[in-house]
Design a protein that fits this description.
DNA-binding; homodimer; mainly alpha
Amino acid sequence: MDSALDHVLPVFWRDGFDGASVQELADAAGVSKPSLYAAYGNKEALYLAALRRYAELHMADRVVALDAEADGRAAIHRFLRSSVEAYTDPAHPSGCLIVMGTTACESATLPDAVRAALCATMRAAADQIEQRLLRAQREGQLPGAADTGAMAAYYNTVLAGLSVQAKAGAARDKLLGVVDEAMRNWPTRAGDALITHSPS
Amino acid sequence: MDSALDHVLPVFWRDGFDGASVQELADAAGVSKPSLYAAYGNKEALYLAALRRYAELHMADRVVALDAEADGRAAIHRFLRSSVEAYTDPAHPSGCLIVMGTTACESATLPDAVRAALCATMRAAADQIEQRLLRAQREGQLPGAADTGAMAAYYNTVLAGLSVQAKAGAARDKLLGVVDEAMRNWPTRAGDALITHSPS
DNA sequence: TTGATTGTGTACTGATTGGTACGTATATTA
DNA sequence: TAATATACGTACCAATCAGTACACAATCAA
């Protein structure tokens, strides 16, 4: 009954909340439709449960590694690289479930609770990155003037972009190259981060 | 009859191919459902027509400006900034229709022709960026060793990420900050672009 | 061996999906 | 004015949607 989530998750992951039919979810779980309803109540609650499962199964370890790495830049770099590896893992649907769900955020058929949970999860990820940047700043690996908020928003944006590219079928190596390119913005010389509006 | 597309487009833009029902599209266009079918054949053809309309209405001028700007870095910077302004324009649904559609690429209900058209449009945009980078390289604004392919993939990824963030409701100013952050990777010193794998 | 509880599948509900048959009204041509 | 062609809306089609009523089977306590 709990392992049903592990079979339901990839269907939501691939087709999204609206795209996945309850019949399809029940078939994937190997149970009948009423059994799913008996266990989870409705489609919305089932999705929220799958989302929690996704976070603990496919995001938690990356976040742990983010703090385990001693050097700030290396931590972010490794976080991006491992994200790409997850996004392009042929064992799962490609890309990130959260990003996938967020792009359907404007649809009226998406329940408010789902919308809220998706946004909360995405914000939590962004916060984790910013916390790591703040630590790097405290430890002198980042200039004191660096705008960690803007940098966190930047890395979060790159992550979302990588997810989209992976969904579109981009090769893993290509995306790893994008990660290396994305890391080139890390401020090495003091004062670099002060340039918020570069001359155009 | 042609102006119907202008009313259909935002519905597809907001709800996606699967999310938008033909009834909803007909209501938006101010005609009956059979009239839509008489004019366009089926939902798939209607979406493809809306996609063409989107490209010429919301992408073409940005691409023109990309070539009009003399300096390469300024051209890319302006392209990103104007994209953010378009993505967060309250007059339209937020984000980019192409990115929005691409995230539903794995769904089985998406017709192959739609999938192909979305990927082709996205690839065309990436090519435009790479062509602009190559020109900048020819004109000496970019080191000869710079990997323009990787850079184009990078900017394309950032664009996709910005679209996702806009869809999630991020403020325009925040995204403009992300653009400035993203531009900090532009190689200024010769040899910078050679570092494809930075020490981690 | 009872009686009650739990879990599951069959078969349904009303609503909505993409798509269409057909009658009607307008416009055009002669 | 009469005949034809085009355009459009009403009303429908089968299929599928999320969700449920209910009967049956298995398990449990006594």
